[in-house]
Amino acid sequence: MDIKTNNDIKSNFAITSLYNVIDPEIGLNIIDLGLVYEIDFNEERKDIVVTMTLTTQFCPMGESIVESTTQAMQQSFPEDKILVNLIFEPPWNQSMISEAGNTFLTS
Amino acid sequence: MFIAGNNSPIKNTSYKVVFPFYSYAALSFLVATILILNNTSAFTQHYFNPHTLAITHTMALGWGTMIILGASHQLFPVLIEGKLYSNFLAYLSFIFAATGIPLLVFAFYTFNMGLVAQAGATLINLAVISYLVNLWLSMSNSKKQNIHAVFALTAVLWLFTTTLLGFLLVWNYTSNLLSEDSVHYLSLHAHLGIIGWFLLMIMGVGSRLIPMFLISKYENVKRLWWVYSLINAGLLSFIFIFISSLKSLLYFIPIALIGLGVILFGKHIYQSYAKRIRKKVDEQVKTSMLSVALTVVPIIVLIAIILLFTTGNSVKLVLLYGFTIFFGWITTIILGMTFKTLPFIIWNKVYSSIASLGKTPNPKELFNNTIFIASAITYIIGFIIFGLGIIQTNILILNIGAIFLLITAVLYNFNVFKILLHKKK
User: Fold this and answer.
1) Element (H, E) at A81
2) Domain that includes residue A12, residue range
3) Residues of B in contact with A82 (CB under 8 A)
C-alpha cells in the first residue's frame, strides 16, 4: 500500500525506521502489515504526524505498537515532535498488506 | 506517547492486577488434580459426596473463575474500548476470593457446613460483588458498548446469581432458609454457573479473541445476538421448569435452545477460521478451537442423563457430565487462552517501552512451546482415560487418567510461572 507523504526523502527514512516496529502478536512489521497510512512532515511546527491504524480497534497490543512507532520515529528525527494519529476509517484489510507481508502470513 | 486526533489505543490494565489471579488459578488446577488423584474412589460413588464437591468447587472457582476474573480485568477494557474503573476493586475481589475459596473447599472436603463454609461463601460473594461493581462502572464510563461486552456483563450477573444461591445453600444446611434441602437445588446452582457464567463469558470473549488471533475480518453481530438470546432463553426456561417442578422431559426445551446457541456459536468460530488472513494457526488457538467443539460433549451426556433418568446409570453419567464440563470444555479453553493472553501481558510490562529500540523476544518465546504441546497431549490422554474410568467405574483406569491430568497441571504451572517470573533479556 502506498503511504501518503509530503516529503518523499524524509518519508523513506521514516519508513525504514518503522520497519523496526513489529506487531508482537503477528510478528510482522507495521509497514508490511499496511498499518501506516500517511506521514506528514510540518517544517514550520517541527512536528511529524504519523497517521496509522491497527488490525482491529480492540487490539490489546495497540498501546505498545503506538508507543513503539513514536519511539522509532523519535530515534530517526530527534529534533521533531512525533504525533500519532490513530484512525479506523478506512478500516484495515488484507489488501493493505504488502506482498512480503502476504507471503509471511500465508506461508 | 503523543496522540493526534480523537482515537487512542486501548489502555491496558496493569499486569499487577492480573498476576495474582493467574498464579492462583494455576495453583488451583494443580491442587484439583492432586485432590482427584487422592480421591479417585469418589468418582465411583454418587456425585453428591464431600470430595467430589470439594474438587468441583476447586475447579469451578479456584481454576475456572479465578482465571476468567484475571483475564477479564485485562480483556474487559478491550471489549468496551475503555479502561478498568478501579484497580483497587480488582485487588479487593482477588483478596476476598482467594481467602473464601479455600475455606469453602476445606468445608466441603471435611463436610463441615457450619462457620467455615459460611465464611467462605460470604467472602466469595463479596469478591463477586466487587468484580460486578467494577465491570458495571467500567462499562458505564465507556464510550461504546458492544455485543461482546453485553455477553460478559450478563455472564457476571449470572455469576452473582450462582454464588448468591450457593450462599443460601450453605446457610440452608444450618438454618433451613429454603423450602427444600440444599441437595434439591444443586442442578439449579450448577447450571446457573455453567451456562450463565462460564458459557456466556467464554462465548463473549471467545467471539472477540479467536477471530482477532486468526486475523479474521469475519463479523456477524446479528448471529451473536441470536446466540446470546438462545442461551439466555434456554437458561431462563430451565429455571422456570425447575422451579415449577415440571416433567423431566420438558428439560429438552432448554437443551434445544442452548444446543442451538452452541451450534450457531460453533458456526461463527468456524467461519472466522475459514476467512482468516493468517493461514498458520498456532497450537494455542487450535486448543481453544478444540474447546468450542468439546462444548457438544456435555450436551450429549446431558441428553443421555434425561433419557436414562430412571435407571442407575444416570448417576455416573452426571459425574461424567460434570467432568466433561470442568475438565473438558472449560479446562481446554483455559489451557489454550492462557498462552494467548498471559505472554502478551508480561511482554507489555517488560518490553513495551523498548520494543522498537532493538531486538526483543517474541511474546511466544516467554514460554516453552514444547512443554505446552506435551501438556496438551497429556491432557487429552488424561481426559479420555479418566472419562472412561467414570463410565467403567474402574479405580485403576481412574488412577491412570488422574496421573496424566496431574502431569498436565505440573507442566501448565511450569509454563505459567516461567512467564510470570520472566525478566528482561
Assistant:
1) strand A81-86
2) 4-106
3) 2
